[in-house]
Design brief:
The structure holds 3 protein chains of 3 kinds.
Chain A: H1 2-22, E1 35-39, H2 46-62, E2 66-70, H3 77-84, E3 92-96, H4 103-106, E4 116-124, E5 127-132, H5 140-149, E6 155-158, H6 164-174, E7 180-183, H7 187-195, E8 201-205, H8 206-215, E9 218-223, H9 238-241, H10 246-249, E10 255-261, H11 266-279, H12 283-291, E11 295-296, H13 297-300, H14 304-324
Parallel strand pairs in A: 1-2, 1-3, 6-7, 6-8
Antiparallel strand pairs in A: 3-10, 4-10, 4-11, 5-8, 5-9
Chain B: H1 2-8, H2 14-32, H3 38-49, H4 54-79, H5 88-99, H6 103-138, H7 141-158, H8 163-178, E1 180-181, E2 188-189, H9 203-221, H10 239-243, H11 246-261, H12 266-281, H13 294-318, H14 324-335, H15 344-347, H16 349-377, H17 385-402, H18 407-425, H19 431-455, H20 460-465, H21 468-482, H22 486-501
Antiparallel strand pairs in B: 1-2
Helix pairs in contact in B: 1-16, 2-3, 2-4, 2-16, 3-4, 3-14, 4-5, 4-6, 4-13, 4-14, 4-16, 5-6, 5-13, 6-11, 6-13, 6-16, 7-8, 7-12, 7-19, 7-21, 8-19, 9-17, 9-18, 11-12, 11-13, 12-13, 17-18
Chain C: H1 13-38, H2 51-78, H3 92-112, H4 114-128, H5 134-155
Classes of the chains: A alpha/beta, B mainly alpha, C mainly alpha.
């Protein structure tokens, strides 16, 4: 994937140079060349999809191209490291999902949200539980009952320890449901595992399974949230099925944010932030978000302080959830993460 | 059928054809230079087509893809450096032929059968995308693992007279594939603290080193600098001779398309399986396999080009790319707002037709370019070694660097060059090692997945091996190993001799 | 020594290779077991990153046996026949010079950049491989480097070292 990007980079850089030569220099002088957006996951996943759409909307605001680079591997930490290794000139930004918050406790990387500055928290892709069309389960209650009756027997595919699918499984564990987990390389492969009857169900991002639900290849049993999706009122919410689960289900578990290294100058972050705030209003982007039923988190967390508070709260909740389940290598206490 | 007819409209679209032709030229050029592979060519193109309309972009990219896969055979035949893992098998017979001064013939066969393979794969994509998808979905992690293992065991027997030497090479390939962070938990394995190794051993630098740099070393080591190659004989390749292999090549195409449709297996496995089939089907090759049998080129090229259509199938219907190139094409789709998935073929029929149209027009360009360029390219082999070798060495360096822009990859390339050289001089083939390296990661994750799935089942053995596909693959693998054990071999040959005498 | 022609097992190539493969596999096995037990606090094999390396090392150990068996067989076959294989002419220094030149090139690259380093590397190899006309050496080296730089670096936007 890197070579794609390097090639991309070179082209856009050349193009960018030409453009910047012709247009009058802006006050801040940033951005005067193409920006690289690192997506620390593979092509085709939710983060990649939303990131690319967001990049197109941002391009319109910044007047420079944004080159999306998929640097996947190790729960996103390979991409995170390559963002940290880049220059702090604002020409490398990262569009990432939530795993940053769990790297340290999972022993994957030394990095955490503290090493980055958030620009904007864009979206949360709702999580849905899906089964194959010929599955014997037709409602979430049937599935949950069977999991309870047969702990560690009902198979579920997920994207590896510390990922959002894992967190969802741990939430089920909190209420006495123990599915048997098998890790797949990407969300898309986890879905094919359900389609091919390798596993019984998976907890997928809604935007990646929407077309399967519409084509009837997958049955959506529930939305892992306290509220139903606006466009799909017949899919029940998990919160209404499991009592007292609001505390866990209220948090957006898959927050996608645009972040930069924490030593990128204030003025540059300001330029990016203003562009991002305009970009989310872009009609095409808005249409994309609405069609895929993605939560618009930018409406919920409007200031940088809000975002930071949200992210650190998220980090604490999920880190302790993972720790209590015995899934972590390190204790959150080692990193001074207070129990929520 | 609709899909085939729908794709025909593009044959009248001049703009479409021109763009596809431009893509084909780029594919030919980039693909034929050692170290610069098809995935690189598509990657370059993605950057340019970013802002184009979807149809224009697809025309160009399909041109690059189809011709690029073929042109890997050019450097494989002329220089013994496969441009991509899929062309590794072509070197086995292509290079010996070129050394005999029959490069022209080898190139012509490669061209024609690449054409056949590509067309076959695309037709399968047009007509059978849904059924092939549903078969591919039946493959479970254990099946992927066994398929890869089967591929490796056949390679052991194919490329070396000594079965165990072939397998040793394959095992070393697997070993190198283990280096780096594992794909599931992100634990660094065998990196010994080198951060550069965390991302694993990249395939292209290793390939370029093991074939390209090792070849240069062997030539210098063997003192064959002045050995001039038999000057090129421009013997006419009779069309009748050429088409003799057509029917059997359809079988290789079938293997290619199907293996291509299994994500992760792809070109190299298809080519190796087709080659091993060729070895058992073709009783009287024009020359012994491995010494310049055109039948080997036919098998390898028709299978690896048939993979194109195959690899596109899971990408379009499941959004799971079948190989490195389709992974890049997938991101092109997303950039243009197309969303592959179960409804793609119906909903975005226009884009689907454009892919097919681009593919078929690309096939025609492949045939034209191949036949026009081959006679000129085959002169490369006449360039004096003392001039050619340093240039190839430089190209190896560039190829290794360009794929990740890391100088570290150049060092890896040198390392694998020396390793490949040592292995060759001790009689170990390097082809199984490349296959092991390519398949290692996929075997690892699928093996663990299989174990993990079985762990929750009541009867673990049934869960692991209880399905028909798995049993067939397991039997194939066991047969492939057992039939190559020397004691068994001599026993069966005795048995046959006795029955022959009676 | 029943037979003078009988080669010592230690000198058989298959045997040496077998020992080498065996040592590598044993090393891998040890490494995997060690790290499986000490790196992670989970001790479940089904998810362990070291499960597959263990399998590879088992393959390796089986192959060791096979290679040593090969050596035994070759040894038996070699009894009787005392013809030594004709030694081919080898140019080991040449290979080392190429490797040396490449290493020098590798370290020169970041220091003096692509174009000068490549010209030097090419010219050096041309001279070593027997091109004696100096103008030809320089011309070829410069033209090749320039062509690569223009075609790849500028034309195709391939990153050069």
């Amino acid at each position: 994937m890197k070579k794609v990007v390097s090639a991309l980079l070179a082209v856009v850089m050349a193009a960018g140079l030409m453009i910047s030569a012709s247009t009058s220099a802006q006050a801040a002088d940033y951005p005067k060349k193409a920006i690289t957006m690192i997506v620390p996951y593979g092509a085709g996943g939710t983060t990649d999809l939303v990131g690319r759409q967001f990049a197109i909307a941002m391009e319109k605001q910044l007047g420079q191209s944004i080159v999306v680079e998929n640097v996947s591997g190790a729960s996103g930490s390979v991409g995170g490291q390559s963002c940290i290794d880049s220059d702090s000139d604002g020409y490398t930004v990262m569009f990432t999902a939530e795993t940053i918050g769990t790297w340290r406790v999972m022993g994957i990387s030394e990095l955490s949200y503290a090493d980055f500055e958030p620009i904007i928290t864009v979206a949360n892709d709702p999580k849905v539980i899906v089964v194959a069309k010929d599955s014997k389960y037709n409602t979430i209650e049937e599935l949950l009952e069977d999991i309870k009756a047969n702990p560690n027997k009902i198979q579920m595919s997920y994207t590896g320890p510390g990922g959002s699918g894992h967190v969802q499984a741990l939430i089920l564990n909190q209420f006495g449901y123990e599915p048997a987990l098998t890790a797949y390389a990407s969300g898309a492969e986890g879905i094919t595992a359900v389609l091919g009857n390798q596993v019984v169900f998976t907890n997928a991002n809604f935007s990646t399974v929407r077309s399967y639900i519409e084509s009837g290849d997958l049955k959506a049993l529930c939305v892992c949230s306290t509220t139903q999706l606006e466009n799909y009122p017949d899919i029940p919410a998990l919160g209404s099925v499991i009592p007292d689960s609001d505390y866990y289900l209220n948090i957006p578990y898959n927050p996608l944010s645009l972040i930069v290294k924490n030593d990128v100058p204030e003025e540059i972050r300001e330029v990016l932030r203003n562009a991002a705030l305009e970009a989310v209003k872009d009609p095409d982007f808005d249409k994309f978000m609405t069609e895929n039923c993605i939560d618009k988190l930018y409406e919920k967390y409007t200031t940088v302080e809000d975002i930071k508070a949200f992210l650190s709260g998220w980090e604490a909740t999920v880190s302790w959830l993972l720790f209590d389940a015995g899934a972590t290598i390190n204790s959150p206490e080692d990193f001074e993460i207070a129990r929520p | 059928m609709n899909a085939l007819l729908g794709s025909l409209q593009y044959f009248l679209n001049i703009r479409f054809i021109l763009l596809c032709g431009a893509g084909s030229l780029a594919g030919l050029f980039v693909g034929s230079i050692p170290g610069l592979s098809v995935s690189m060519a598509t990657a370059l193109l993605v950057s340019i087509t970013y802002t184009w309309s979807a149809t224009d972009a697809l025309a160009t990219i399909m041109g690059v893809y189809v011709v690029g896969v073929f042109s890997g055979a050019l450097s494989a035949i002329l220089l013994n450096i496969p441009g991509a893992p899929a062309s590794v098998v072509t070197t086995l017979d292509g290079y010996p032929l070129a050394k005999r001064g029959e490069a022209y013939k080898a190139l012509k066969y490669a061209t024609v059968y690449s054409f056949v393979g590509s067309v076959f794969g695309l037709v399968a994509l047009a007509l059978l995308a849904q059924p092939i998808t549903s078969i591919a979905l039946k493959f479970q992690p254990m099946d992927y693992f066994l398929l890869a293992l089967f591929g490796l065991t056949t390679v052991g027997g194919l490329t070396s007279k000594n079965f165990s030497k072939g397998l040793v090479s394959a095992v070393f390939g697997l070993f190198f594939a283990m280096i780096g962070m594992d794909s599931v938990l992100g634990t660094p394995r065998l990196t010994f603290g080198f951060r550069n190794l965390n991302a694993g051993i990249p395939t292209v630098p290793a390939l370029v080193g093991m074939f390209g740099f090792a070849e240069i070393l062997s030539v210098i080591f063997g003192g064959q600098l002045d050995a001039t190659v038999n000057s090129i004989t421009h013997q006419v390749v009779k069309i009748k001779d050429m088409l003799k292999h057509f029917w059997v090549s359809l079988y290789y195409c079938l293997i290619g398309t199907f293996v291509g449709a299994l994500p992760g297996a792809g070109g190299p496995v298809a080519a190796f399986l087709a080659y091993s089939q060729a070895k058992s089907i073709v009783k009287k090759p024009s020359r012994p396999f491995g010494e310049g049998a055109v039948e080997g080129i036919v098998a390898s090229e028709s299978a690896n080009n048939a993979c194109i259509g195959g690899a596109l199938i899971p990408m379009l219907t499941l959004a799971v790319p079948g190989d490195a190139v389709t992974a890049i094409i997938l991101s092109v789709f997303y950039v243009h707002g197309l969303q592959p998935g179960p409804t793609f073929l119906m909903r975005s029929a226009d884009s689907f037709y454009a892919i097919l149209g681009g593919g078929f027009i690309g096939c025609i360009f492949l045939l034209l370019l191949g036949l026009l360029v081959a006679p000129h390219l085959s002169k490369v082999i006449n360039v004096p070694k003392k001039v050619l070798l340093p240039i190839v060495a430089l190209l190896c360096v560039i190829g290794a660097y360009a794929c990740n822009n890391r100088l570290f990859d150049v060092a890896l390339m040198f390392f694998f060059g020396i390793l490949g050289f040592v292995m060759r001089s001790r009689g170990y083939p390097v082809a199984p090692m490349t296959l092991g390296l390519v398949l290692g990661g996929m075997m690892d994750s699928n093996f663990r997945r299989a174990i993990s799935l079985a762990a929750s089942a009541d009867n673990k053995v049934v869960a692991l091996f209880g399905r028909p596909i798995t049993i067939v693959l397991l039997l194939c693998t066991i047969f492939s190993i057992v039939s190559n054990i020397p004691a068994v071999k001599s026993f069966t040959s005795k048995l046959f001799n006795r029955s022959a005498k009676q | 020594m029943e037979n003078k022609n009988k080669k010592s097992l230690l000198k058989m190539r298959s045997f040496q290779d077998g020992i080498f493969v065996g040592l590598c596999s044993a090393g891998l096995l040890g490494y995997s077991l060690y790290h499986h037990h000490f790196d992670r606090n989970t001790s479940e094999w089904k998810l362990s990153p070291f499960l597959f390396p263990v399998l590879i090392s088992v393959f390796g150990l089986l192959l060791t046996i096979s290679l040593i068996a090969d050596a035994r067989r070759e040894q038996k076959a070699a009894e009787g026949a005392d013809s030594k294989p004709a030694k081919e002419k080898h140019n080991l220094p040449g290979a080392f010079i190429l490797i040396g030149a490449s290493i020098v090139y590798y370290f020169l690259l970041p220091v003096i950049h692509f174009i000068p380093a490549s010209i030097l590397y090419l010219a050096g190899l041309f001279v070593y491989l027997g091109e004696r006309k100096w103008w030809k050496v320089i011309l070829l080296a410069v033209i090749t480097t320039a062509a690569i730089f223009l075609l790849f670096g500028k034309g195709l936007n391939v990153r050069l070292p």
